Amino acid sequence: MYLHGTSKINDNGHLEIGGVDVADLAAKFGTPLYIVDEALVRQRAREYVDAFTKTGLKFQVAYASKAFSVKAMCVLAEQENLSLDVVSDGELYTAIQAGFPAERIHFHGNNKTEEEINMALEVGIGCFVVDNFIELHMLDELAAKKNNVVNVLLRITPGVEAHTHDYISTGQQDSKFGFDLGNGSAREAVVQASQLANLKLLGVHSHIGSQIFEVEGFRMAVEKVTQFAVAIRDELGILFSVINVGGGFGIRYVEGDSPLPIAEYVNAIADAIKSNFTAADYAWPEIWVEPGRSMVGDAGTTLYTVGTSKNIPGVRKYLAVDGGMTDNPRPALYQSQYEAVLANRANEEATELVSIAGKCCESGDMLIWDLKLPEAKTGDLLAVFCTGAYNYAMASNYNRIRRPAVVFVKDGQADLVVQRESLDNIVCNDVIPERLQKSSLAK
Ligand SMILES: *Cc1c(COP(=O)(O)O)cnc(C)c1O
């Protein structure tokens, strides 16, 4: 059994996270429950910041809040001196409501609306990562109306695509995001951005993928970005002061996943920046990264209660829990794999092979195929590890299932950071038009 962060098995044979017995959490907050190991989130943040500090480069570590965007998480990010990426008005609003400093917020997205851009201008965010020409001009116009000059990075597709283990280097990358480097649109974007009076071009951004276990892709991306920066300097006399290499740093979900220590990613990126820019006689730019998954992923655990089971002799035993694809759609979406334990009997020998089903009306609603567990009974607790990223963030109300609560645990203390949805929450936005109401039908 692989235990992350402060997780351990206590003397009662119970899983304990942040010094809190998860059986107590289940009793107090109910299940399903997302549990976040606060110390581990802080540790991850510090690993990034400390590693960058040692490189001597100027940097920003921007937490990609799409991985898990709630107010308490924004407060943690602020306390750990991170910047913050947002991709919608909802994520921006969450950050602002949490008191996150606007000047450390970066706005991403391939289709920012006028409303969203105006909101971001009004709160005074630090940087827009511009994705396309329509946005470039809309942003300039909207900034002009507010007499503003805004910082921008241009998102470029460098033609490096990472698939965890292999990298595809393509001339023309087929992606909905960004300005293509190979076909000249990135260059054209620099030309236009530099001519727009209400934009201040800081540099470029690239993001090559997710759940990456090696440094080679980042090196390749830095190399392509440097070549581009040098060409732009030589042809246009424009200098970049910021290079953002995105996120995508991998984490260990299951045995066989082999992420590198955070410092190794950071050092590889910093070394590539230093050597490439030095070779081109170009001042070292400030370097920004955007970790999402690796900031919160392994700090999250989802606690469920075991309900029913169905044994098909010779075929499979299904064990159903009180959540499923509504709180964790990743297995259904990406065939993602997870490890889990029977949290209230974690010392017992695993004697059965079971598959963990959710409670949704959907055969695809499976959380884990083929998991070895002690023989589980109704009422036992199942803890699924590594659910901190893209779980609560992707949770839905399918089947009108209520989204779970989220608690932060640390040093023996558990604090609610998101309440469990109520049944009233489920219907609170529903409207019955008057013409459908009984009184008007009777007329
Ligand atoms: C999703 C995303 C990230 C974060 O990716 P992780 O794999 O969670 O680290 C960072 N930057 C951009 C532009 C993204 O789209």
UniProtKB/TrEMBL annotation:
PANTHER family: DIAMINOPIMELATE DECARBOXYLASE, GROUP IV DECARBOXYLASE
Family label: Belongs to the Orn/Lys/Arg decarboxylase class-II family. LysA subfamily.
GO MF terms held by the record: diaminopimelate decarboxylase activity; pyridoxal phosphate binding
Biological processes annotated in GO: lysine biosynthetic process via diaminopimelate
Domain annotation Orn/DAP/Arg decarboxylase 2 N-terminal: ranges: 41-296
Phylogenetic placement of the source organism: Bacteria, Bacillati, Bacillota, Bacilli, Bacillales
Active site per database record: C361 (proton donor)
Protein name: Diaminopimelate decarboxylase
Function description: Specifically catalyzes the decarboxylation of meso-diaminopimelate (meso-DAP) to L-lysine.
InterPro entries (alphabetical): Ala_racemase/Decarboxylase_C, DAP_deCOOHase_LysA, De-COase2_N, Orn/DAP/Arg_de-COase, PLP-binding_barrel
Family annotation (Gene3D superfamilies): Alanine racemase, Lyase, Ornithine Decarboxylase, Chain A, domain 1
Binding site for substrate: R293, R330, Y334, E362, Y390
Domain of life per record: Bacteria
Residues annotated for pyridoxal 5'-phosphate binding in this entry: G248, E290, P291, G292, R293, Y390
Cofactors named for this entry: pyridoxal 5'-phosphate
